[in-house]
Each structure stands twice: as C-alpha cells, then as structure tokens.
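Example 3.
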Amino acid sequence: MDQTEARLRALMLAGLAGDAAAHRALLAELGRLLRRYYARRLGFGAPEAEDLVQETLIAVHTRRATYDPQQPFTAWAYAIARYKMIDHLRRMKVRPSSPLEEAGDLFTDGGAEDLVVKRDLDRVLAQVSARTGALIRDVKVEGLSTREAAEKHGLSETAVKVAVHRGLKALTSKFGGGRED
Amino acid sequence: MKTDDLIEKLSAGLEPASPWWVTRRILIGLGCGALFSALLMIVWLGVRPDLMDAMTGTMFWMKFGYTLACSAVLVAALIRVARPGGSMGSLAWALAAPFALVGGMALWRLANAEPVIRYGMLMGDSAEVCPWRIAVLSLPIFAGAVWALRGLAPTRLVLSGFVAGGCAGAMGAWIYAFHCNESAAAFVALWYTAGMAVVALLGALAGRRLLRW
C-alpha cells in the first residue's frame, strides 16, 4: 500500500507537470486496480464494470487539477472511484449490499479471498505444461485476446487457440469428472 | 471504446495542470455571482442613504465583520469540499466562532436592556423581510458556486451543497448589510443568521441533484 502510494503519487505529480508518459502509466495502472475493485463490488463479469472503469479514468483525467499534492494520492483516487460507484448504484436505484470499505480496498492485492483463488488456480494450472498454463492464465483469467496472447508468447493465433483448448480439455477431464461443456 | 485506447487518447497532448485551479474556479464563480448580487441590491433595494454616517458606528462594522467572517470561513470550506474526499474538518469549528461571538453579544445586550425594548431589538423594523431578501440576494452567488463545483470534483454532495448555500448566504448577507439600517446585535444574530441558514438548507436539499458530475 505504501509502495503503491509512493509510486502512483510520483506518476501523478509528473503527469500534473505535463509528463504524458507518466500520465499514461498512471491511468493504465489505475485501470487495472479499478477493474478489480468494481468487479469485486458489482460481481465478477458485471457488464457495467468496464464502463465504470472508463468513466472513472476520464474523471481522474479531466479533474486531475483537484488533486492536492499535500494529501495522499490513493485517498484522492479512491474517493473518485467510490463516488462513481455510489453514483452508479443510485442511478440503478439499488442500495449497496456490501459495506463500502476504506481506501485500502482499491489498492491491495485483494486480500485472503483473492489469495485462495490464486492458490487454487496455481495448483490446477500446474497440471499442464508451463506454457499452456501461462496461455490459459493470460486468455481466460487476465482477459487478453487471442491475438494479444499470441504476440506476447511469439506464437500464431491458431497455436494459442489450440493450446488453450487442449489445455482446458485436459484440465476438465482431470478435475471436472469427465464432464465436457 | 477499449480502455487502452481511451488511456492513449486521454494522455495524448497532455497539458500541465495549475495547482491553483480549484481556488481560481471557486473565486471566479463566487465573484461573478457577488457582482450580480451587488447590482441587484443597488437596483432593487438601494444602498442605505446614511451609509457614510453608519460607517462611523460600531454596529455597521459588527454586521460587516460577522457576515464577512462567515463568508471567509465558508469560502475556505468550499475549496476543501470541492476536492474528492474533502470535508470541512476543523473549519466547522472556525465557523462556530462568529456565531458564538455575535450570539453572545446579542444575549448580553438583551440582558442589559430595559424589558420593554427587548422585543423591538429582536424584531427591528424589517424582521419579516430581512431573511428573504438575503436569500434572494444570495441566489446569484449560489448559482456561481454551483457552476464552480460542477467543474470540480465534490464527492459529498449534500455537504457540498450545504457549504455552497451557506457561503452564498453569508456573502448575500454581507451585500444586504449595505442596504439594511438595523442596528441591534439581537436582530443580526437572529435574522441575518436565518437568511444564511435558509440558503444553506436549500443548498443541502438541492446538492445531490445540482452537483452531480
């Protein structure tokens, strides 16, 4: 959390001074944090989560001059993220069913809940080859497109599709009791 | 649009941001509103004819100081609540000081006055119009504050509306003091405060609707 604060704050200050690369890096990292934050609050796979991520990034960008350098950056960014979510819930006329936690929520690695998922995922993916495991992780967990994964691993798109398909099939037969769907 | 493309678009041609942006925008909004409100006061009510004489007495300066002190604290509060996560903090206590001072002065004067004139001190000649005139004079300033806030990033909309309304009310009361010829501390403590409170309440009620961004 402290490291995140120091790193993001440095990027923000550079961006406020006009450094476009720092600003781009800041928005990219915030995008990742926000995606996870909204997914956890609204439910994984909620279609509006990505809209909220974009809306919040636009707000962070257009209203960046409201950041007071005397104050922690993470608190500022979290206040915007939280505001955008409450605004969204109010528009939808639903009340938040889970309490809205403090700033740490946006900037941690997800706590115990994510750690358990991550451990299980590691264990499952260890059953296939390292490369197939990495491909499945990129395409099915991180959300890269087939083409992005292909570029990242220096493979053809077809090779990525085949590897992911075979890997998943192998895992399904091993863990899913032979069920195929 | 994909998020990566959006980020690319936003960071292209980035301009440096001024650290004074928030303060400047708020002062512009309030300043334009106050100018309009002062013109309204001159055209509608008129500056009191005995202003020069009044300025030699303490009561004019009490009204002037009271409304200006409230305005100053609330402008500072407005600059705070205009930022994400901002709250009034210690300024809530600073705001209590002018109220306590004028309230204390009013009570002390009332306690030492002949019982028969107490009612007159409280009601003056204009008690039934004073708060409403202050509220009307505050509206242009409130509009300026809303304009400023909508371009900034308040995240507590009810509080922000309250502070914007209170600030407009205090500045409107300050402008009204150039017209009003009441000179009892009790009158100011009651009716000026009521005028400011009306606008602050209005701001709090309208905040969520007016200040969304």
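Residues 20-42 of chain A form the longest helix (23 residues). The mean pLDDT of chain A is 83.
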